[in-house]
């Protein structure tokens, strides 16, 4: 007998920190495009500057296609419009190794606003959500 598939999947890989001491993780599942990922990376790297290093733990590997406006059906699959990645709950998006942890936490909170889903900041000492 087949098991019922979960509607709210939880990440079993990529949910632990390896490099940094503060990280931004997803609090709910969703789809992130490469533009959103890059916007968040810019916010973190500009805020942290010389106090730490930013590591992006994701790679957008799903091509999203889109047909031109007012084109009739048929004639094959459309060209790639952008790239995205499906994320499960608990997946780490960014890791920061910083000397000033409070600066890194505020930077990751800013990057969380660029994401299309709810996120949380976790630290290595507590492994819990920070303000």
Could you walk me through the main structural features you see in this protein, from its secondary elements to its overall organization?
With 131 residues, this protein is of the alpha+beta class. It has a single domain (22-68, 78-123), classed as Alpha-Beta Complex (Aldehyde Oxidoreductase, domain 3). 21% of the residues lie in helices and 29% in strands. The chain is built from 2 helices and 7 strands. The chain has helices spanning 34-48, 101-112; strands spanning 22-26, 30-33, 52-56, 62-65, 80-87, 92-98, 119-123. A 4-stranded antiparallel β-sheet has the order 3-6-1-7, with helices on one face. Helix 1 (34-48) packs antiparallel against helix 2. The longest helix is centred in the N-terminal third of the chain and has 15 residues, at 34-48. It is globular. The model has no long low-confidence stretch (mean pLDDT 88).
How many beta-strand runs?
7
Distance between the termini: 44 Å
| Number of H/I helices | 2
Mean pLDDT: 88
